[in-house]
From TrEMBL:
Xref: Pfam families: Peptidase_M48
Family: Belongs to the peptidase M48 family.
Spans through the membrane: 111-129
Keywords: Hydrolase, Membrane, Metal-binding, Metalloprotease, Protease, Transmembrane, Transmembrane helix, Zinc
Cofactor: binding comment: Binds 1 zinc ion per subunit.
Residue ranges of every copy of the Peptidase M48 domain listed in the record: 184-363
Classification via PANTHER family: METALLOENDOPEPTIDASE OMA1, METALLOENDOPEPTIDASE OMA1, MITOCHONDRIAL
Cofactor: Zn(2+)
UniProt lineage: Bacteria, Pseudomonadati, Spirochaetota, Spirochaetia, Leptospirales
Stated name of the protein: M48 family metallopeptidase
Disordered, as annotated region: 317-342
Single GO term (MF): metal ion binding
GO cellular component terms attached to this protein's record: membrane
Amino acid sequence: MIQNQTFTSRYFNGVSAVPEEGTVLVNGQTIQFTSADTNHKISLSQFTEFHRTHNGCKLILLPDEIKESPTLEIFCTKEETKLLEKTWIQNKKSQSHASAFFYSIREMNPIVLGLLSLFVVSVVGFFYFKGLELVTNFIPLSMDKSLGDSVQLKMETQFEACDSKATDRFFSEALKQIVPSDSKHQFQVSVIGSPIPNAFALSNGKIYFFSGLLNEAKSQEEVIGVLAHEIAHVEKRHHMRNLVKAGGTSLAISLVVGPGLGNMEFLETLTEIGSTILVLKFSRDFETEADKTSIEYLKSKNLSTDGLLSFFQRMEEMEKGENESEETDSATNAKEETSTATQITDFLSTHPATKERMKTLESLIQKGKKGTIKKIVSDSTWKEVQSTCLDFKKSDSK
C-alpha cells in the first residue's frame, strides 16, 4: 500500500476539455488532488475504473454510460502504477462479496485467466448449442412446410421440370417403399433438366432430382439410395435445425464480439467467418446423420444398401478424374471443366464424399442384414427413367 506519496497529476472535471494541473497525495485508501484553484479528497473505492497508461495511470470516477466522467491522471513509474492498482483493487474488493469475486479474477495471471475463460466459454458454448437443438422441438412442422413452400415457388420459376410418366411411376413406387409409415410429411419428387448429378430436398417434402443424376446412375439402387438420403434430411428436420443453429450462432458471436462494431470491419468479418464455419460443420453433421438414417430406412424395408455407397464413390472418382484433366489440359477443355468438374465439385461441397464418410457408410452397411436387390420398376421403365431429359442434356452441351 502506498502511504503519503505525492505524484504529478492532472484532473479533468468532465465539463471542460482543459485539465487542472496539480499534484496527488496518496494516503492509504484516499487520494487528495490539489491545484492552484481546487482541493479534492476522494476515496479510492469511489473510482469505477483504473487504466494503465504509458506514463502512469488513469482513474475514472463515473461509469461511461452515465455522463462524461471526471478523470484523474497520475504520472508515475510502472512499479508505482502496479502498487496503485493493487491498492485500488483491495478497496474495491472490500465493498461486497460480488466485488471481491470480480476483482479477484482481475488479479489473476493473464495466462491462467485466459485458460479459465476458454474453459468457461467451451462449457457454456456446449450447453448453448445443445439448447439450440431443443429449440426445434418447439417449432411446429407447419413452419417447415411454409419454409419449403416459399423456396419451391422460386425453384419452379428458375428451373425447367422434365417429369415423365416413367419418372412419376418410379418415384411414386420408391416413396411407398422408403418413407417411414409414421411420417408426418407429404413427399413429392420432381426431375429438373440439368446435367448436374445432384439431388436435394426442401423442408416441405418436395425433392428434386437433376436429370444428370438419373442419366449417370448405374442402377436403380443408386437412385433409391440417394432418395432415402434426401427423405432422411426432411424427416430429421435438418433445414429447420440448420436455420435455428445458424441464427443462434450469429447471435452468440455477435454477443461475444459486442454490438456497435462501428468501423471495425475486421470484427464484422470475423463474425461472418465464424458463422460460416459453424454452419458448414452443422451441414456436415447433418449429412452424416442423413447417411445413417437412410441406411436404416433401406434395411427396415429389406432393400439393398450398396447403391448409396457406390454412387458417392463414383462421384468421388469423377471429381478426381476431372481434377487431373484440369491440370493436364486446362486450356483445351475449359468449357468441359466448367460444365462437369465444377458441377461435381459443387455437388460434393454439399454432399462431401470424404474418406471418413465412405468408411462410415461401409461400416453401417456391414452391420446387420444386407438387404436384397429389389427392382422398383421394370427394366424397360428404368431405361425410360434413365433417358429423362437427354434432349435437354444434348442441347446444353452444344
